[in-house]
Amino acid sequence: MGWEDCQTSRFASKMMDDLGVDLVNTTPFQIQCKAVEKGCQYTKILAGMPDNENYNVIFHKKDRKEYVIIRKSDFYELIKIMKSEKLI
Q1: pLDDT by residue (tens digit) across 15-66?
Q2: In terms of C-beta density within 10 A (0-12 exposed, 13-18 middle, 19 or more buried), how is residue 13 classed?
Q3: 27 inside domain
Q4: Is residue 1 situated within a structural domain?
Q5: Global pTM?
Q6: For a surface tag, which of 20, 28, 38, 78 has the fewest beta carbons within 10 Å of its beta carbon?
Q7: Within a domain: 12
């Protein structure tokens, strides 16, 4: 997706890995990756991620499909930004 410096936090930053961020150097997003079929508690995961200027995002692979989960308020903010930049 264009983040040439993207790395797993397991490799690049133990601190970010401990905060529940799986991919680093993906500003303005902080991404956690999940591949579980049952028991993925999105609200708990998002609440455990850093609370800063970046958007917390969960990439979830389930039932051979892939999903992206973000807070509704973050989604609306991204829509406003895209509208103001005339991208949509």
Answers
A1: 999 988 999 999 999 999 998 877 788 999 999 999 999 999 999 998 889 9
A2: middle
A3: yes
A4: no
A5: 0.86
A6: 38
A7: yes
